[in-house]
Write a structure and sequence with these properties.
single chain; about 100% helix
Length: about 130
């Protein structure tokens, strides 16, 4: 009887240990599941961040391409502006030369008229001399 009682006590103690261990394991499983859930949530957050980062990188690349295109257009505009300025300077020079040429032609025309006038006087004088 006392052996049976000892066996019962041992079984009861073992049962208690098993229940405590089972409780501890259940707690560990719950903690592990909670950690897994937290990791899944964090993984989703990182995936979202990576997607946003990928989109931002794409936008940055697009902006860099547009910046390069605008730089090219700016350089072309600067070259065109330089050519325009050179053309304006050449045009001014041609206008000045044309003004000088016209002035010279007018002066030459006056001199020619004076010479022609002088020639008429010479002819008239010669005519008078011949007549006398």
């Amino acid at each position: 009887k006392s052996r049976l009682q000892a066996d019962c006590t041992q079984l009861s103690d073992a049962k208690m240990k098993i229940q405590k261990r089972e409780q501890r394991l259940k707690s560990e499983v719950k903690a592990s599941n909670d950690a897994c859930s937290a990791l899944k949530k964090e993984t989703e957050q990182w995936k979202t961040r990576a997607t946003r980062s990928g989109k931002a990188c794409g936008q940055l690349k697009s902006l860099q391409d547009r910046h390069a295109a605008l730089n090219t257009k700016y350089e072309l505009l600067q070259a065109a502006t330089r050519r325009h300025t050179q053309c304006e300077q050449q045009l001014l020079q041609v206008e000045q030369e044309a003004t000088e040429t016209i002035s010279n032609l007018l002066t030459g025309t006056k001199e020619t008229q004076q010479l022609l006038g002088d020639k008429d006087e010479v002819v008239a004088t010669q005519t008078l001399l011949v007549q006398t």
